[in-house]
Specification:
homodimer; alpha/beta; Nucleotidyltransferase, domain 5; 9 helices; globular
Chain lengths: 318, 318
């Protein structure tokens, strides 16, 4: 029998799942519409039967664990708690509900922690004991590994680096405060910065022809690659703010590496070069030259989330 | 035989040492003038012979380990590295040098980490796995415990929370940057704030009669206790800035408690009340009400440093 782990990525719209072997190979996958199951019991029934179905297709496979990435997931309690983007309200004991259907270890955590575990088990952080993954998407999430262990904190919700205040009194954040790193350093933050620069700068730019609601990090990165002055300035400013958050992370835990993951990180050198420059210039002097700023080496896209979730499962049974 | 540990606190001027039993009782103590030994070999000879002398006075004692707190100490390497306030230049392999004289486990770390270990082994953090100690003295140091383990980071120098940037472009810091937490939230920061407020406010105050070079946190706390408006405002502002740094710590690692230690923390309620208020108002909403802000319960004064250093030793052999 070959042991495998199921990785599950629960999103507001879709849930993607897959079977992953010890080397990080995705052997089979599938998906469900999360929105089709407003009752958590129906969702658990559909998900567990889908996983069991995938496993039973190959008689040589044995399911060892289920790892789940989900918004507002609490690893310590195995729950999803008050998730604004999911239909299931209150505190949902998802791990227990699944275990009643499939009796293997079930672990869940948020997508940023899953990404960090994916990086540690299958990606560029193999063998590292001190690193941080920043996920730069709609928001800015963080998964932190210290002494070789994921940091969950006393509440189970540690890793809210996106809510470092980098600009006191700055931009409004969804958390109700102002000046949080995620309002500057996420894909959404980059879009906000472009909007500001369109007001501040006189330069002509194709970005002036796109409705603000349709601006994306990808469009801006492409414009920057073509030397659009507003896109370039926006990328540089985003890097500067990201570097401020990264410098505080380094002051706290002195990691070996910081990995950037997700939509904005796909911009590549046009983001990484200024981030590295501003980190070196702005970090506490004793830490100059001690930290690598790296792109995630887990394949990006929907599979990365499934791999990360599966890594959580592998870590549980290793 | 009763096992004991030697705790050593190396300061720029004095070195204090003592024998500490498992319950945190200081059985004997002594001190050396650090400045009398510009050659590290002479210092090691004097220190080890002083410790051996203390131990040999009571034939029932057996030395189990030596724990040392020192500026710029690296736990991972057992070294003191480029300490600007000590005569020994470059990288000093202190643990190895001592082990050659007294063959027991020798560990060293900076004073903030030693304070955190003291809190965990002998103080208010007994049984806690997630907490941070902030030492509010001339500078602002931090000792961080996550998953029950001290955080040293990849370099061995983690825990520079005093160098979070809380005010971009703010006050000059000794590290060469501007706006670091320690320029606002340390005892020295409080003095700077009083100086600013003496320029900004018209209120009469006995603080106007003290030469700036003689102003101390203690004097200011005493004036605040007597309702001096400038001292009160300074204490409130210091608390607000400290709370900003604390909020970022909480966003990172979601601790159970933050302990305040050292000169400024002795101000008591006049500091703790506004710190708690600003932390609750300013922290990422999910963490409201999850963190205790507490005074250190290791006895303050020179003994606290010796106890913290001894706790490092006890932790090593436990």
């Amino acid at each position: 029998m070959k042991e495998i782990v199921a990785g599950v990525d629960i999103g507001g719209t879709n849930t993607v799942y897959g079977l992953v072997d010890k080397s990080g190979k995705l052997l089979a996958e599938g998906s469900l519409k999360t929105t089709k199951y407003p009752d958590i019991k129906d969702f658990v029934a559909a998900l567990t039967s889908a996983i069991s179905g995938l496993v039973s297709k190959d008689k040589t496979l044995k399911l060892g664990a289920i790892g789940i990435g989900a918004p507002d997931a609490n690893y310590l309690r195995g729950t999803i708690e008050d998730a604004p983007n999911l239909a299931w309200k209150g505190i949902v004991p998802l791990a227990d509900l699944i275990k009643k259907k499939i009796n293997v270890p079930v672990v869940l955590t948020n997508d940023a922690n899953a990404a960090a575990m994916g990086e540690m088990i299958f990606g560029g952080a193999k063998g590292m004991k001190e690193f941080i993954v920043l996920t730069l998407g709609t928001g800015l999430g963080s998964g932190i590994v210290i002494n070789g262990q994921m940091v969950y904190g006393h509440t189970g919700f540690a890793g809210e680096v996106g809510h470092f205040i980098v600009e006191p009194g700055g931009r409004e954040c969804g958390c109700g405060r102002r000046g949080c790193l995620e309002t500057y350093g996420s894909a959404t933050g980059l879009v906000k910065t472009v909007l500001f620069l369109l007001s501040d700068m006189r330069a002509d730019s194709p970005l002036r022809n796109i409705p603000p609601s349709e601006l994306t990090a990808k469009t801006i990165a492409e414009a920057a690659a073509k030397k659009d002055p507003i896109a370039l300035k926006a990328m540089d400013y985003t890097a500067e703010k990201l570097a401020m958050g990264i410098a505080d992370c380094i002051a706290f835990s002195s990691p070996e590496a910081i990995f950037l993951f997700g939509g904005l990180a796909l911009a590549g050198d046009i983001l990484f070069k200024p981030v590295r420059k501003y980190v070196e210039a702005g970090v506490f002097p004793n830490f100059k030259g001690t930290v690598k700023i790296l792109p995630s080496s887990v394949p990006q896209g929907s599979n990365a989330a499934v791999l990360g979730a599966a890594a959580m499962g592998w870590n549980e049974i290793k």
